[in-house]
Input
Amino acid sequence: MQLSIYKDYEELSHYAAAAIIDFVKTNPLAVLCFATGDSPRLTYKLIVEAAQAKKVDFSKCSFTALDEWVGISPENEGSCHHFLETNIFKPLQIEAANIHLFDALSDDLANECRKMDQLIQEKGGIDLMLVGVGMNGHIGFNEPGTLIDQYSHVVNLDDTTQKVGQKYFKEATQLKQGITLGLKHFLQSKKTIMLASDSKKAGIMKQVIKGEISTAVPASVIRMHLNAEIMIDEEAAALL
Ligand code: F6R
Output
């Protein structure tokens, strides 16, 4: 595992974008799995700018979901679907056939999980995953105590995630469950990049990087990944 510490969010985002761009240049058919949230927001803006300037071409990449709030429609501004659509798929003009997200409104979520696992398997696995870290150490919606040996699954969101998740929504929204790729997908991805910035992430990043490797802090399993990079800014690295 490689750890890179950058001056601030801007510098971090530039390096993260550069890493993604390099990856896609050498793997133009890559299967990509991108987190939503504040950590990667600027990174996505930068890769979109690079693509619009014809410095990189994402048109042959496929995109898989990382996670979604159960019961929240894709039109809701707080949904992961809406975030990806607005920040990545629309500006990059990704064809619908190359986008594979969970239907979190389905009345058969187990089937949604099966379909996603099968699709990822058929595509030969995820080539590049870009993840953030929750305040409770989650990756995707793999909450503390999750199983390490699990593919897609439905989870009961813990209190921290239910509370922090409100930041994505215009009005108070009940967030009880999530649907997510599992830690097994994460560990089997060919490359993974984890982003964290801001002083509010310093405590959890200390546990992720210096604490015990344990599903009590799901993001700590990145240290078992064979090709992983943690990119954080100085504020998030303050307690290391
Ligand atoms: C979102 C996701 C979450 C976030 C995490 C950090 O798709 O998978 O695990 O990555 O909650 O969110 P931010 O970056 O907003 O602090």
